[in-house]
From TrEMBL:
This is GGDEF: diguanylate cyclase (GGDEF) domain. It comes from the Bacteria. The chain holds residues 351 to 633 of 633 of the full protein. GO terms for molecular function: cyclic-guanylate-specific phosphodiesterase activity. Residues 24-278 form the EAL domain. The keyword Membrane applies. GO terms for biological process: cellular response to nitric oxide. Keywords: Membrane, Transmembrane, Transmembrane helix.
Length: 283
């Protein structure tokens, strides 16, 4: 096929993306069409309060349901969308859809559930992010305290006064903020005390291995202690078994999510999962 030979003939590889330029362009037009054809979907992973075992929230995780290729994970298209600028349109859709879904679940009885939304640092480069969030909350008639925004360390270390004032305005509205993938980025922790962030999410790479690797467990323990001394709560990502859960409780970690309980599920399945869980739980 012409497309294949073209692909092989072109030998410029984008090292960072680990894809050829042709594949990259192909993806960009694929994303454009996915937006038009509504092929993106949010899946939801339950978040637990470890001591009580209660489900307190859901992290919204985007999937691309491709008509031929099936489910495409975010790692395959979010980095491309960040470079092409399409992350703005995707991100706005994610914010609206997550708020709409949160309201639907509240109406169906999950009144305490907080939905966590991942934000790319690129989305902060435009000044309409705050307006997008307020508009989504207003449209869904959802209270600000029902959502949490997951930020990355790279956003916070930039030390931009615009970002810091935007974040404090979001906090004033009552929106919760957390730092995602904590531990993978930067070692300068000074920024932590400058922002009104509520929770740190320890990256799954440390949590997953913590029962087999004492260095990883040491990192997890240190992050929990540091977070607590700064009055931040901790979410452990990547809890895959009960031994890890037990240890995290001993270490004082407040929250967790991971395959030990459930992967991210389509909204309908998530709702059913929570309902069944609550019945088992005797709630
Ligand atoms: P993240 O925000 O750190 O999300 C956690 C990732 O860990 C998810 O991968 C989740 O499915 C996976 N995970 C959860 N529990 C476990 C576990 O026990 N073991 C293992 N091995 N993995 C677990 P996913 O859904 O593929 O998302 C990957 C990344 O893509 C996310 O990392 C986030 O950075 C990004 N992403 C996802 N949805 C969005 C979105 O709507 N907007 C933006 N900007 N980024 C998103
Ligand atoms: Mg996240
Ligand atoms: Mg994470
Ligand atoms: Mg991650």
């Amino acid at each position: 096929k012409a497309k294949d030979s073209g692909r092989n003939a072109l030998r410029f590889y984008d090292v960072e993306m680990n894809t050829s330029v042709i594949e990259h362009l192909h993806l960009i037009s694929g994303i454009r069409s996915a937006l038009l054809k509504h092929e993106f979907k949010l899946y939801y992973q339950p978040q637990y309060h470890l001591k009580t075992g209660r489900i307190i929230g859901a992290e919204a995780l985007i999937r691309w349901i491709h008509p031929e290729q099936g489910l495409i994970p975010p790692i395959r298209f979010i980095p491309v969308a960040e470079r092409s600028g399409q992350i703005h349109e995707i991100g706005t859709w994610v914010i609206n859809e997550a708020c709409r879904q949160a309201k639907e679940w509240q109406n169906a009885g999950l009144s305490q559930l907080v939905v966590a939304i991942n934000l790319s640092p690129i989305q902060f480069r435009r000044d309409d992010l705050e307006g997008d969030v307020m508009h989504a909350l207003a449209t869904a008639q959802l209270s600000a305290s029902s959502i949490e925004l997951e930020l990355t360390e790279s956003l916070l270390i930039a030390e931009s006064s615009q970002i810091s004032s935007l974040l404090s305005r979001l906090r004033l509205l009552g929106i919760r903020l957390s730092i995602d993938d904590f531990g993978t980025g930067y070692s300068n922790l000074g920024y932590l005390s400058r922002f009104e962030v509520e929770r740190l999410k320890i990256d799954q790479s440390f949590v997953r291995r913590m029962m087999d690797n004492s260095n990883d467990q040491g990192i997890v323990r240190a992050i929990i202690e540091m977070a607590h001394s700064l009055k931040l709560e901790v979410v452990a990502e990547g809890v895959e078994n009960s031994a890890t859960l037990t240890r995290l409780i001993e270490l004082g970690c407040e929250y967790g999510q991971g395959f030990h309980w459930s992967p991210a599920l389509p909204a309908e399945q998530f709702f059913k999962f929570v309902k069944d869980y609550q019945i088992l739980d005797g709630e």
